[in-house]
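User: I'm curious what two different proteins look like when written out as structure tokens. Can you demonstrate?

Assistant: Sure. I'll show them one after the other, since each token string lines up with its own sequence. Here's the first protein:
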Amino acid sequence: MRFHQALPKPNFSKASPAFYRLHDVMRITTLSRSTVYRRIAEGRFPSPVHLAGRASAWPSAELQAWIDDPEGYRRIATPLS
């Protein structure tokens, strides 16, 4: 048996992920970790959502809204319940 036959086939799905983790957000936006979190605090970048345990990620739709207009993006403040 050859080694390359035992490897799983790569997934070439055209579907984009529903959520992006921090390392992906930094790669896509070319922002540093500190800049991402500073802009979140200023309301100029989408906030991550809690997934499970310590995991959080950014919804692709919100990240796309920022990509479409980074200077005009303003997070809508939601009232605390």
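Here's a second, unrelated protein for contrast:
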Amino acid sequence: MTSPSLTIDTPAGTVRATAGLRQADAVVFELGGAMRGSVHVTGTHHPHHWDQFTAVRACLGPVNAFETTAPDDDLPRLARIRSGYRGSLTLYDDDTHRPQVTVYPMESAGGHEPSEKTAAALTAVLRACAAHVAQRDDLPEILNLSRHRDTPALLRFLTWSTAHHQAEAARYEREARAAHPARRAAVAAWWTAARWLTASPHPVLLLMLADLPSSLARTVDVKQWWAPYCLTEATREHEHARRNQAEADSLRAQQRSRRPSRSPQPAAHGAPHAARLELEMS
């Protein structure tokens, strides 16, 4: 069982993070020492797999920033710095089961980018809190609750994305079909200009036949590769649509087979007196 209190060394000094009671699918940390405020940690989908809830996301602030915006006064801030900061980090395993992080843009309450030192301190705190939650005994329950919470919005997005990629695939296929007669017409025009040049040489005809912008030769060249390019892009769009549909089907299957537990919320690995913290996900 991991400790509910973390000591985090950062470029801005030592930060203490104390986990409070779990709030549904969220663990909140109260910060002290070199940083004051709170961090909100919850489960989320893998960055590369919308249907796999195997990642942990930590946000600066007292709320889930992917659902609402924290007031400026509630954002975490470093000691002796008035402005609080927004931002988030996702911790996940890659295909080789090595931990990876994706850090989302951080900014002050006033919309300014933090200094390199401040950004490093904020990232260190977010990563430590996320890593703590990733080691908890109740992580599977946190991830299941997060999946249940996010599935409706993800299904809406995947449904839209599938339709968008299918429409793009159809557009590329139409352009590929149209490219064949256009290429034949361009080739015919080039040969016509070539015969004219043979019969009556003229500088304009030379320009039309040369490999120059807007010339017949350049048009033929473009039409030559445009159809294969469109077919390749159509195949790629079909694959995106297929993958999105498969992930949507997977989410629906999980939604039917796994329901969130309604058991009483457990304490976060001890810490009966730890302050309850809310983390904002950006």
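A detail about the second structure: Confidence is low (pLDDT under 50) at residues 263-282.
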